[in-house]
Amino acid sequence: MLGTGNAFLPNGRQHSFAIFDGCHIIDAPPTALAGLRRAGYSVADIRTIFVTHIHGDHVFGFPFLLLERKYISDREGQAPLRVVGSPSVRVRLTELCHLAFPGSLEGALESIEWVETPTGETSDGWSWKRFEVHHDETVDPYGYKFVHSDGASFVHSGDSGPCDALYEAIGEVPLALLEMGFPDWVESTHHHKPKDIEELAQRCDTILIITHTFVDDQSEHQPILTDQLPQHPNHVHHAWDGMDLNWSNGHWNISMR
Predict the structure, then answer these.
(1) The domain 18-254 is classified under which CATH number: 3.40.1280.10, 3.60.15.10, 3.30.70.100, 3.30.1480.10?
(2) pLDDT tens digits for 58-82?
(3) From CA 124, how far away is CA 127, in angstroms rounded?
(4) Are strands 236-238 and 207-211 parallel, antiparallel or unpaired?
């Protein structure tokens, strides 16, 4: 978990951002390059970017990743890169790159393999399925279900409020990365709130890893909204930046503080 905060960057958290197997990332938020640097990953090692939707806090780091690859970590242009997302992703990310660095990223954009199919596979054993979730329809919101040939599987919710498609997918896997972007007093269904997490946890035994949170990681700073985590059942874990999730012997293991 390279970042676990929502769009407003709670204290101690970068934007929600995950990497798995050291080469596949989910979204490319504004803090993506900082998150990869902090964790010791080379941008040139990234092989796949799975895009959940095109809100700024999920994709505005994309031009910086391409810029870094072109001028620093992959100057010879040898590192392959696939971007997986809905048909609108290529158009919007290309526009974003032209706006951010006009004239600088054309070659890098042309070298990308853009994958728009709702299902697919990586070269290292992962298959994915993309499914619609409940969020702002103008940004093409999707979640992903990932399954590996060794038996590991998990779901990433993207940004989504409660919805049947997401909950059906969560019921099929042992672990889910689930956003909780709003406190209970916000009048919107486009993000999960603590009470939604509680209700879901009572309905399933899937391990729920809470990310995209509005809750500050506790620090010496004055809380922006709050630094008090909600109390949830034992199979709900509130993630922090740097949290590790490891698949071993048929189980997901979670690093604990």
Answers:
(1) 3.60.15.10
(2) 999 999 999 999 999 999 999 999 9
(3) 9
(4) parallel
